[in-house]
């Protein structure tokens, strides 16, 4: 076997191992590490003394033209089981020309206030303005299309009993309009994501969060760059200063996902672009010599996942090089890769014709996610940046 043959086999093996690591191996490694080193010490806590007043929470919603949803969202906050005198709600308007402000002010509740702005600064700019006006010990960021469980506020503050904790990530569930096929395809990947967050949290290396349900100590808020999102930057800021991010599986919220694969694709491209840039803007967190645990999680959970299209392409290219040179390994891997690719294309065409096929939703979801990763990373590498970060109707 010559040098180039050995190099091709090594490159193919590396590509296969990296894909397996991203989509399963890392989760298994987290489970093993937790079994060996992570028992106890970082489980979510419960309030030990009911006579102690809970922390004052400021709920922040950045909104742009949300008249169709804001009343329901405000009522959802008020229905939560949390002491009224410890709750503040700020709706930060990022411009807009509908009745959102009128509806908010119509609630006539002292807990609710509205910050209006005539200029569009994006979601992060509106959040910065609200945080500056907030009076709570805990800042809770969420969206107009999210819905909290009635005990969400009680649950989300529990981990702050531990002084090491700087940010808490709730457990977000997605509900899709009309029971979209996107719900089925993304359900598997989201369950894997939540399992990873739970184990990273227990190991004290979590550095990601859901922007629809995250809370942090107000004293740790540094402000958000306008082009990046809270779900990316805030966990990195918190961990950079030595505090921990915890995932609380009992602090549950529901959000509305994309209605179709096209919308899911566009959303994932934007998400990858802003999070790729946001993570590299704090590149020191990727240095294993300075932040060994967090950097391990970031490389495994985020960077390698975003780069998985490169590894998938490597499998295809290296396998076919070996195939044409007559190597048995090349035959096996190339046939499997070609078969999966062909079946994915057939599934896409069948989906367009409303025909159901085995593994259809999972394969299309996988293809959508990795295509979006590829384009989002390419835009980031080429220097494209989002001028301002927005979500949903806040675009």
- Terminal CA distance: 56 Å
Low-confidence stretches: none
Helix proportion: 40-55%
How confident overall, as mean pLDDT?
90
Q: Strand-and-helix sequence, N→C?
A: HEHEHEHEEHEHEHEHHHHH
Please state the second-level CATH architecture of the domain at 57-259: Alpha-Beta Complex
Largest beta sheet, briefly? 8 strands, mixed
Number of helices in the DSSP assignment: 12
What does it look like?
The protein is α/β, with parallel strands linked by helices and 395 residues long. The chain has a domain at 57-259: Spore Coat Polysaccharide Biosynthesis Protein SpsA, Chain A. It has twelve helices and eight strands. The protein has helices spanning 3-37, 70-79, 100-105, 122-133, 152-157, 181-203, 230-240, 261-280, 292-306, 308-324, 328-352, 360-381; strands at residues 57-63, 87-93, 112-115, 138-142, 147-148, 165-175, 213-217, 244-256. It has an eight-stranded mixed sheet. Helix 3 links the parallel strand 2 (87-93) and strand 3. Helix 10 (308-324) crosses helix 11. The longest helix has 35 residues, at 3-37. The model has no long low-confidence stretch (mean pLDDT 90).
């Amino acid at each position: 076997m010559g040098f180039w043959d050995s190099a091709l086999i090594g490159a193919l093996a590396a590509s296969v191992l990296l894909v397996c690591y991203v989509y399963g191996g890392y989760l298994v490694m987290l489970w093993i590490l937790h079994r060996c080193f992570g028992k106890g010490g970082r489980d979510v806590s419960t309030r030990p003394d009911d006579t102690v007043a809970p922390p004052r929470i400021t709920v922040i919603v950045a909104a742009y033209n949300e008249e169709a949803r804001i009343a329901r969202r405000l009522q959802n906050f008020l229905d939560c089981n949390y002491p009224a005198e410890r709750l503040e709600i700020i709706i930060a308007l990022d411009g807009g020309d509908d009745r959102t402000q009128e509806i908010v002010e119509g609630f006539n509740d002292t807990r609710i206030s509205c910050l209006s702005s005539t200029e569009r600064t994006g979601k992060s700019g509106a959040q910065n303005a609200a945080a500056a006006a907030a009076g709570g010990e805990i800042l809770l960021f969420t969206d107009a299309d999210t819905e909290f469980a009635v005990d969400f506020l009680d649950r989300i503050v529990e981990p702050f009993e531990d002084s090491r904790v700087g940010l808490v990530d709730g457990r977000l569930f997605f509900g899709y309009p009309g029971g979209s096929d996107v719900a089925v395809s993304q359900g598997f990947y989201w369950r894997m994501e939540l399992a990873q967050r739970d184990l990273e949290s227990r190991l004290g290396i979590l550095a990601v969060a859901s922007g629809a349900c995250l809370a942090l100590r107000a004293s740790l808020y540094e402000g958000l760059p306008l082009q990046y999102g809270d779900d990316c930057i805030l966990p990195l800021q918190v961990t950079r200063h030595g505090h921990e991010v915890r995932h609380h599986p009992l602090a549950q919220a529901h959000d509305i996902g994309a209605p179709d694969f096209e919308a899911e694709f566009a959303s994932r491209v934007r998400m990858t672009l802003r999070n790729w840039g946001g993570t590299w803007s704090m590149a020191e967190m990727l240095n294993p010599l300075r932040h060994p645990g967090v950097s391990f999680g970031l490389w495994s959970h985020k960077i390698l996942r975003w780069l998985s299209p490169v590894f998938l392409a490597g499998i295809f290219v290296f396998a076919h090089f070996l195939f044409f040179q007559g190597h048995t390994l090349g035959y096996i891997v190339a046939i499997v890769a070609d078969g999966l690719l062909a079946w994915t294309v057939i599934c896409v065409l069948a989906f367009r014709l409303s025909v159901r096929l085995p593994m259809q939703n999972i394969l299309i979801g996988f293809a959508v996610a990795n295509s979006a990763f590829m384009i989002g990373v390419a835009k980031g590498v080429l220097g494209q940046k989002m001028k301002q970060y927005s979500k949903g109707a806040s675009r």
